[in-house]
Specification:
2 copies of one chain form a homodimer.
Chain A (H helix, E strand, L loop, with lengths): L12 H20 L6 H7 L4 H8 L2 H23 L8 H12 L5 H15 L3 H21 L7 H20 L3 H14 L1
Chain A binds a DNA duplex (30 and 30 nucleotides) through helix 3.
DNA sequence: GCACGAATGTAGCGCTTGCTACAAGTCTTT
DNA sequence: AAAGACTTGTAGCAAGCGCTACATTCGTGC
C-alpha cells in the first residue's frame, strides 16, 4: 500500500525515477505494442523488476493509465513537431498537409499503438476510451487552428478533415492506402 | 499431423462439425473479442476441448485464419442484409444510408472485433491484414454499386464515402460520435 | 471377427501472467 | 548509535497459455 505518488519532497529523486521508467516503458510499448506490455517485459525495458513496477505504481491498471497519459503527451509533442505551423492557405492545403504529416513513416509506431487503443476503447475500456478521446480532441483543436483564416466554419471544417484523415489512416493500416489516397485527392480538389 | 481438411467424402459429417465449430467460435469471438480467443474458451464455446480444436485445425494460427474468414463472410452477409438495395438518389443519400446502416447498434460487435483486426494488421500480422483488406474491398464494391446512377466517377465517389464512414466509425469507437456526426452532416450537404 | 485408422478424453509439460510474502538492504531522523 | 521508514531482491503462488503423449473408443473394410 506504500507508494510515493504523493511524495512531493524537494529532493525530487523519486519523481525523476518515475519519469525515467515511464520514458523507457513508453519506448518499449511503441516498439512492441500493448500485447507485450506485461509487467516483466516492461520492467526489463525500464531496467528494473516487476516487483518494483507494482511497488511504484500500485497495480498494473494504474501503471497503464499513467503510461497511456505519458504516451498521449509524447504523441502530442511529436505532432506539434511534425505538423506545419501557422495557417493553411486553403482547405485543400490544410487537409493535404495534415494527412501528409500524420501518415508519414515516423508516426507508424504511434499509429500501430493507436489502433490497439481504439480496439480497447471500442470494447468498453474506459481508461483507453478517455485517453483516446483526449487525443482526438487535441488533434481536432490543432486542425481547427490550422484552418485558413477566411474559413467560414473552421470548427466544422476541422471535424470534416479529421474524419477523413482518420479514415485514411485506418485504410493505411489494412493495406488499402490506394483507397485512402484517392479519397483524399478527391476531397482536396473538391475543396 | 492427421487433420481432415482434405476430407471431401460424401458423408459430409466432418465438414459439418467443422462448420458448427466455426459458427460457435465466431459467436464467442463476436461477444468476447480476440483477447478471449484462446483455445480453452473457444473450445468451451464450441462444446469440445482444446485438444480437439488442435486436432481439427492443426494449430492456433490456422484456426484463427479459418475463423477470420468465417467472420468476414458473416460480416458481409450482415451488411447485405442491413444495407439498402438498389441505388441511392444522390451522393448525399448514399453517404447517409451507408453511415446509418453500418453505425447501427447491431454492428457494434462486428466493429469491436474490427478494430482488433485493424490493430493486428497495423502491427504487421499478414493473416489479419489480408482478411481486413478483403473486407474493405468488398465493402467498397458495395458502396460503388449503391452510387446514384448519374454519378460521373462512381469508383472515386465510393472511395471517398468509404473513407469518411470508416473515419466516423473510429470516432464512434473512442466516444467522439459528435465529431463524426458533424463531419458526415457537412459532407452530405456539400454533395 | 479382426485389424486398422480416425476420433476423443485425460493428464500434463514448460512457459507467462499479475501479484505477494519475506527478508534484507539503505537512508534519514532523533 | 538506535529506530524507523523507504527501497529493493528472491522466491513463489495460482491461473492461464499453446500444445503433446498416451490410452482409449469407435466405425469400417477385409
Amino acid at each position: 500500500m506504500t507508494n510515493q505518488s504523493d511524495n512531493l519532497d524537494v529532493s525530487g529523486r523519486v519523481p525523476l525515477d518515475r519519469q525515467a521508467m515511464l520514458r523507457a516503458m513508453a519506448a518499449h510499448v511503441l516498439q512492441h505494442g500493448l500485447s507485450d506490455a506485461s509487467l516483466r517485459p516492461l520492467a526489463k525495458a525500464a531496467g528494473t523488476s516487476d516487483r518494483m513496477l507494482i511497488y511504484h505504481f500500485g497495480n498494473k491498471e494504474a501503471l497503464m493509465a499513467e503510461l497511456l497519459g505519458y504516451l498521449a503527451n509524447a504523441y502530442s509533442e511529436a505532432l506539434d513537431e511534425a505538423l506545419p505551423t501557422g495557417r493553411a492557405d486553403s482547405r485543400g492545403e490544410c487537409l493535404y498537409s495534415i494527412a501528409a504529416a500524420t501518415r508519414g513513416p515516423q508516426f507508424a509506431p504511434y499509429l500501430a499503438l493507436w489502433w490497439q487503443i481504439v480496439a480497447e476503447a471500442s470494447r468498453g475500456n474506459e481508461t483507453y476510451r478517455t485517453s483516446a478521446r483526449e487525443i482526438m480532441r487535441r488533434l481536432l483543436g490543432w486542425v481547427e487552428d490550422f484552418m485558413p483564416a477566411g474559413e467560414a466554419d473552421p470548427a466544422g471544417a476541422a471535424q470534416h478533415v479529421l474524419t477523413l484523415v482518420e479514415g485514411a489512416q485506418m485504410l493505411d493500416a489494412v493495406g488499402c492506402s490506394d483507397i485512402a489516397d484517392a479519397a483524399l485527392a478527391r476531397a482536396i480538389t473538391a475543396d
